[in-house]
Amino acid sequence: MSSPDGTAPPDRPDGTAAGQEEPKIEDLVHEDAGPTPRFEDLAEEHAEHEAELSAEVMTESGPEPAAADPAVAATGTAVATEPGKKMELGPVGHLGDRLFSAFARGSGGLVVLIVAFVGIFLLALAIPALADDKSSFLFSRIWEPGGDQPRFGIAAMFYTTVVSSIIAMLIAVPVAIGVALFITYYAPKRLAQPVAYAVDLLAAVPSIIYGLWGILFFAPILLPVINGLSDALGWIPLFEKPPGDNVGVVFTASVVLAIMILPVVTAISREIFAQTPIAHREGALALGATKWEMIRMSVLPYGRSGVVSASMLGLGRALGETVAVLIILSVPNGNDPWNSSIFAGGETFASKIANNAAEFDSPEKTGAYIAAGLVLFVVTFLVNSAARIIVDRSGPGGRRPRRKRGAGVAQGASS
Amino acid sequence: MAKRIEVSGLNVYYGDFKAVEDVSMTVEPRSVTAFIGPSGCGKSTFLRTLNRMHEVIPGARVEGKVMLDQQDLYASGVDPVAVRRVVGMVFQRPNPFPTMSIFDNVASGLKLNGVKDRKKLTEVVERSLHGANLWNEVKDRLDKPGAGLSGGQQQRLCIARAIAVEPEVILMDEPCSALDPISTLAIEDLIEKLKDQFTVVIVTHNMQQAARVSDQTAFFNLAATGKPGRLIEMAPTKQIFSNPAEKATEDYITGRFG
C-alpha cells in the first residue's frame, strides 16, 4: 500500500473491491450512485440508496474498517480514521436544487410549447383557406378572400413590408452607429448620458403616438423631401411620384419606422462599442491614428457583429410594426393599378390584417388573413435566424472569415 | 532615424493627483534605456508622456518639457497624433488588431500615413518583419489573422507594426511581462538589434532584463503610497547594478526593498 506515511490500516481485508490497487474516490462514488446522477432519478433512487448505504456500513464496519477508509488514505491526508465512522457526504440533490431545476425545465418547455401552438394555430386556420385559393398565394397581388371563388395573394403586401423595412434600416442603421459612436467616444461625459437617455426614451413612446405624430406632424414636413427625391430620381419606377400630394406613403412610413427602431439599434451598438478593449484602441492610437482612424481600425471591426445583430433586431421590429404603419399608410383604391413606387400608398402584412380585423366573419376570410400572418411570422423568423447565425459566426471582436482579397495580397507579398 | 530625448522638470497629474514629480533626464539616441522601480512609481506613466499616450486617460496632464532633438512635444500647435507617428509604442500585452491579417497589421501604420502602393507596402512589411525577427515564422501565412500567433510572436508582430512606420523612438511598456522565458529571450535579442536604428526606452519589472538589454538605467521610486513618483537615479546600467549612488537604488536592486 502506498499510503504516504504508511498509516493505511494494515488489517484491511484482501477480498474487497479495492484488491491490490488503491481505489479512487470516483470508483466509490460510481459504485454508490451510478454513472451520472440525474436529479429526476434521485427522488426514486434515493430511498434504496439510503438502504444500500446503511447496509454497507453495517456489514463493513465492526472489526474491519469501512470501505471509505482506503479512499481517505488515498487523498493523502493520511490520518488514520476511526473505524466505523462515516463522513456525511450525501445525499446528492437538495430540495431547493430540485425545485429550481423543475422550474427552469418547465419554463423552457413552456416557451417551446407556446411557439409550437402559435405555429399550429396559424397552420390549422391557414391551410383550408389556402387550399381554396384560386390564385397563386405567393405571387398574386389580388386580395379578394371569401365568397365562392376566393382569390388572394401576398405579393403586394410582401413588397410593401419588405421595402418599407429595408428603407427604414438604411436610414436607421447609419444614424444609430453615429449616435452610438458619439455617445461612446465623442460626447463629453456630461452630455453622453443625457443623449443616451433621450435615445432610450424614443423606445418608450407607444407606436400609436408615432403613428399620429407621423401622419399629422411629420408627414407634411417630409413632403418637400418626397418632391425633391422624385424630381431627381423620378425616372426610376421606385421613386416615381404619383400625382397629388399624398403623404401617407411608404416612404413616410419608412422614416417613422426608422425613428422607431433607432433606439434598439443604438443601444446595442453603444454597448458593444464601449466594450472595445482599450488595448485595441491604444494600439491604433500609438501608431498615430486620429480618433476616427482609431474607430475605424479597432472599434468598428470589434463591434461589427453586434451592429449586425442589432440591425436585425431592428429589422424584425420594422417588419412587424402594425399601428404606426396602419395610421400612416394610405390604402390604395381598389380600382387603381398597383404602384411599386415608395411614394405611393400600400399595405404591409400587419397593417392589412389590422385594417380588416372587422372582416373576420367567415373561416375562409379569416384563414386568408391568417395565412398572410403566417408569412410575416416566417419572414421575421428567418430574419432572426440570420441574425443569430451572423452573431454566432463572429462573436464580439471575433475573427470573420477572411475574404479572398486578403489572400491574394499576401501571396503577392510572400512571392 | 534616432533622436535624443531631453526631459526637464516634468510633472504628471491625474486630475488633482500628482503621479510623477519633477523628472529630468536625457535619453541618448541609438541606445536602450531601461526604467525600473516598484509598481505605482510612475515609470509607465512617465513613459506614456514621451509620446503623449497619457492623454488617452481622462484627466491626465503634464507640466514641463519633453524635447525631441530641440522640438518640444508639448509646444502649442503640436499634434499628439503626429508625435505618436514619430515616437512609437509597444504595450504590455500584445495587441495586434484581431480582425486584420498579419500583413495588414504590419501595414496598418503605413496605411494611416496614406501609403497605398502595393509594392511599397509589401516591401516595408517584409523589411519590418525581418526587423522584428519574425519573417521566417510567418512568411507563409501573411494572410492569416495576427491573433492566431503565439503570444511572443504577437508581441514581435506589434514591434514590426511599430517599426514599419520608421519612428525615431520606440517606447516599450513591460513588453515581456506577459511572455514565457523563450519568447522573452527573443524579444530581448530583438531589442539589442533595434538599438542600431532606434532610440529604445523600455519599462521593465525584471531587473535581470534591464541589466541584459539596457545601456542606461533609470530608477524610479515613490516616498509612500499616495505620494508622487520621482526619478531617484539614472546612470549607465553597469554602474546602477554594481555601484549605485543612492541607497534606495541599492536596496531595490538587491531585493531589500521594503
Automatic annotation (TrEMBL), chain A:
State where the protein is found: Cell membrane
| Domain ABC transmembrane type-1, residue spans | 158-387
Record-annotated membrane-spanning stretches? 108-131, 151-183, 195-226, 246-268, 306-331, 368-391
Any Pfam family: BPD_transp_1
A biological process from GO: phosphate ion transport
User: How does the record say this protein sits in the membrane?
Assistant: Multi-pass membrane protein
A single GO CC term for this protein reads:
plasma membrane
Gene3D superfamilies named among the record's database cross-references = MetI-like
Task: Region Disordered: list its residue ranges.
Answer: 1-70, 394-415
The UniProt keyword set, sorted, is: Cell membrane, Membrane, Phosphate transport, Transmembrane, Transmembrane helix, Transport
Regions of biased composition (Basic and acidic residues) lie at 21-52
Q: Which GO terms describe its molecular function?
A: phosphate transmembrane transporter activity
Q: Say what the protein does.
A: Part of the binding-protein-dependent transport system for phosphate; probably responsible for the translocation of the substrate across the membrane.
The Swiss-Prot or TrEMBL record describes its family as follows:
Belongs to the binding-protein-dependent transport system permease family. CysTW subfamily.
Q: Which NCBIfam families match?
A: phosphate_pstC
Per its record, how is this protein called by name?
Answer: Phosphate transport system permease protein
State the species of origin. Answer: Kribbella pratensis
Automatic annotation (TrEMBL), chain B:
UniProtKB keywords: ATP-binding, Nucleotide-binding, Translocase, Transport
- SUPFAM superfamilies tied to this protein: P-loop containing nucleoside triphosphate hydrolases
**Source species of the chain:** Kribbella pratensis
Q: Which GO terms describe its molecular function?
A: ATP binding; ATP hydrolysis activity; phosphate transmembrane transporter activity
Q: Which domain of life is it from?
A: Bacteria
- Pfam families, from UniProt? ABC_tran
NCBIfam families (UniProt xref): 3a0107s01c2
**GO cellular component annotations of the record:** membrane
Residue ranges of domain ABC transporter in the record: 5-247
- Keyword presence, Transport: yes
Q: What is this protein called?
A: Phosphate ABC transporter ATP-binding protein (PhoT family)
Give the UniProt record's GO annotations in the biological process aspect: phosphate ion transmembrane transport
| InterPro entries attached to this UniProt entry | AAA+_ATPase (IPR003593), ABC_transporter-like_ATP-bd (IPR003439), ABC_transporter-like_CS (IPR017871), P-loop_NTPase (IPR027417), PstB-like (IPR005670)
Question: Mind telling me which PROSITE patterns this protein's record contains?
Answer: ABC_TRANSPORTER_1 (PS00211), ABC_TRANSPORTER_2 (PS50893)
